[in-house]
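Weekly structure sync, notes
Attendees: PL (lead), two postdocs, one rotation student
Agenda item 3: pending single-chain targets
PL asked that the sequence for the first pending target be pasted directly into the notes so everyone works from the same version. It is reproduced below exactly as submitted, 376 residues in total.
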Amino acid sequence: MKKIVAKQVSILEPFYDLIFVYAISRITMMIHHPIDGSLSPRIYIEFIIVVIFVLQIWLYQTVYINRFGTSQAVDTVGLLISMFAAIYLANNINTEWRLTFHAFNLSAALTTINLIFQYLFGSSTHFKRDHDLQGFIIALGLEFILLVTGLIIGYQYGVHLCVAGGLIGFLMPLVMYRMFRPEQVNFPHLVERLSLIIIITFGETLVNITHYFKGAIYSPLAIAIFLGVAALFGVYTLLVERFLNHHQHTRGFIAMYTHVISLLSITAGIIYMADEEVSRLFLSCFVASNLIVFYLCLWLYSFYNRRHLRFNGRDLRAMAIVLLLGSLGIVLCRKNNLSLMSAFVLTNVVEFGLLEWKLQRKKPSKEPHNNYSSHN
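Predicted structure, written out during the meeting:
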């Protein structure tokens, strides 16, 4: 099978990503402050919905450039319009939806119709002959209709239609995934773009832990927090850079639907440690559960591993045992921030060690790894 040539990331794409640095910081603020010692389910569900809204906008733009973009005028103008709308979208992220209902959803509707325009007129293939185009435009069209209808009806009932529109836009491609052709995806480009949004999310984590770095430079808690975040990032980086087969034909859906929510939640959990009124049981369970979700997503992502580096039952059992023991340690050590973070650090360091050990003991197969073909 012919090796995939990686599509070069254009200079406009990282420029477009800059607004999502701000958007992610605004999203994290939604769950910055626990109420009565914990986080209400309603606020956390609203947080997840907003993450989905923002992430699906970024994903649709990235998927368009990955599959159809040719760096023509349509791509450039479309990307700039998306940036303009995304700034308004990000600036209207909060927990009081009533106050920013129209501004937020008007921005989302503008972005959606702009994406439909790009998919229709920026692609070199014809709509009637390309199932990928049809699938994405159907999803975006349904989202746009629900957003506009919700805006016309107004907040009281329209908010439910707007939320439904965002969820449909996010989930519809998964329902129709068999429509999409794996060979149309430039997987190296997609991995690079997805890695950048994860790096942005880790950057948000670093920004939010800076208030722990005060006083003596050898503060044990600050060192533990930094090591924990660094080890978590190391686990992700090791998997993406060393384990993944970047040159394969795949739809890429598993890669697109993982990590961001759990990472932002872990960030919030670290922030909560500075709040003396927060419930320690809630804090430890919140950090541990989101750490588990992060690793579950990571193991799903490993579906794209090179053939000789795929995780077998023994690998998964070992990593699962470490994760469960580490999560238990986080809960048991909840009374003290340093102890809690020490358990967090140890879990991530051991997980990193298991991945590194597998790399050292597994030799590449004689069969070129780019012959492996996947369809998810």
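Discussion points:
- The CA atoms of residues 31 and 84 lie 26 Å apart.
- Residues 366-373 have pLDDT under 50 and may be disordered.
Action: rotation student to compare against the earlier draft before next sync.
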